[in-house]
Amino acid sequence: MQAGKDKVVALHYTLSIDGEQVESSHDRGQELWVLLGHGQLIRGLETAIEGHGTGDTLSVDVAPADGYGEREEGQIQRLSKKYVPLADRLKPGMTTVLTLKDGGRRVATVHKVGMSTVDLDMNHPMAGKTLHFEVELGAVRDATAEELAHGHAHSPDAPAH
Question: What is the mean pLDDT of residues 55-68?
Answer without folding.
Answer: 96
